[in-house]
Amino acid sequence: MEKLTNHLSLYFLVPSQFAAQLINLENASNVKKFILLGLSEDPGVQKISFVLFLFFYMIIVAGNLLIIITVTSSHPLSSPMYFFLCYLSFVDICYSSVTAPRMLADFLVGNKTISFVGYCMAQLFFLHFAGASEMFLLTVMAYDRYTAICKPLHYTAIMNRRVCWLLVFACWAGGFLHSIVQTLLTIQLPFCGPNTVDNYFCDVPLVIRLACTDIYVIEWLMASNSGLISLFCFLVLVISYTFVLATIRVRFTEGHWKALSTCASHVMVVTIFFVPCIFIYLRPFSTFPSDKHICVIYTVLSPVLNPLIYTLRNNEMKASMRKLWNRCRDKLGL
């Protein structure tokens, strides 16, 4: 109980106290740097991986930027669904940028060391900040589709622009609170060695295994924090789409089938993102080996597929992109 009280007391540190705690913890730990093993230690595989993941990262940035520009510049895409999609694209760029640039650099260098308090904890914080914000945003998008299909007469009143902004703010606030908890629980641990992280980025499950103290209580706190958030959001999504399918089942109009197609895209994104996260975080961290290849699914593959899924399966988006391309071509005189 005393350990649990000590861990929970970190949540309520004021900024000045937290800064002092951070300095003390850095001085108390013998380990100042971590070594990332990456996806592979084979030089040939690293070169191939660099080209492949550079291509993926370019698709993530270019594809999601295209969605943001298209939505913000096209009046027909002013509905709440596209408003949330625009922010999802922004979160995807931020989320992938936390891990991808460092991973690409590590493919080309032999020295893969990173500072503990500086880079490693910053990466952990922003990874969970963006990741949790995306989870909440996907849940909000499911609620938006539920409202549009199950309560069409009240949709514009319920999902007005003020509510949309409040929901986006709530997603960012929820992501920040989740991330600061994870970071505080990790950074207060003493690290005496070893200092090798069997992954291509710093994350909670692998980092806390290196702590030279009993982590039983803290790993369950973290699993309940990350894992239960993932599971809760996923269950809310499943319930929302269950109601959507039940509504569409008795309404065979063209508009509802179009909505079903949009929901199918959302379900694909949700499945790719949530299932690996639940598998990674909803379990005791110390009893399982590294799952770095599964981490690729939600840190790289999901942001790659999001722009493809939401554009290739959406006629309105494709039409707006064509209009945007034609306007740009006319201005350039092509």
UniProtKB/TrEMBL annotation:
Report the domain of life of the source organism. Eukaryota
List the Pfam families hit by this protein, alphabetically. 7tm_4
- Cellular component terms per the entry's GO annotation: plasma membrane
Q: Which residues cross the membrane?
A: 48-69, 81-104, 116-143, 163-181, 228-248, 260-282, 294-312
Which topology term describes how it sits in the membrane? Multi-pass membrane protein
Q: Where in the cell is it found?
A: Cell membrane; Membrane
Keywords, comma-separated and alphabetical = Cell membrane, G-protein coupled receptor, Membrane, Olfaction, Receptor, Sensory transduction, Transducer, Transmembrane, Transmembrane helix
Q: Which CDD domains would you find in this protein's record?
A: 7tmA_OR4A-like
| Molecular functions per Gene Ontology | G protein-coupled receptor activity; olfactory receptor activity
Give the family, as the similarity comment puts it: Belongs to the G-protein coupled receptor 1 family.
Q: Which PANTHER family match?
A: OLFACTORY RECEPTOR (PTHR48002)
Q: Spell out the protein name for this chain.
A: Olfactory receptor
